[in-house]
Amino acid sequence: MIVTNDRVVSLSYDLRINSPDGKLVETVSQESPLTFIYGTGKLLPKFESSLKGLGVGDNFEFSLKSDDAYGGFNDEAIINVPKNIFEVNGEIDQDMVKIGNKIPMMDKSGSRLTGVVLKVEENHVKMDFNHPLAGNDLFFKGVVTDVRNASEEEIANGLHQGCGCGSGCGCEDGTC
Known about the structure:
Elements: E1 7-17, E2 24-28, E3 34-37, H1 45-49, E4 59-64, E5 78-82, E6 87-88, E7 91-92, E8 102-106, E9 112-120, E10 124-128, E11 138-149, H2 152-157
Antiparallel strand pairs: 1-2, 1-3, 1-11, 4-11, 5-10, 6-7, 8-9, 9-10
């Protein structure tokens, strides 16, 4: 079976920045592969198109220019956020507002995004909302570990990955 629309695809891969010899930023193992429904637009379009037609056991190597990945670094994505939004019970949460911390947030339209604290000042926190890989070309090297037809339910409702506590995956101790 080959990778095409409405197929559940599983991959293991290494992701490096800028070249096959670049800094390793992610490893996805065969024991815990990336699994997705091909053609639903949930992944980078050029990432998906680079996999089309491959089958189980096929190796792949491809690169994505930054414009086809997470875009260039955007200086306008560095903004000053009012410090008072980090208040909990009237006090600033000092453990949260530390330089380098990644803080999940939501914009005015309800979209989720993550900001990195760059600087803490008296009345505001300077944060970077660029994707961590923005401005970088990406190089993927891996293997297709499984391809199967997606069920009608998976196509209608999406693919639910990962485990939930109590699902028999080893996280029943509450460490999820």
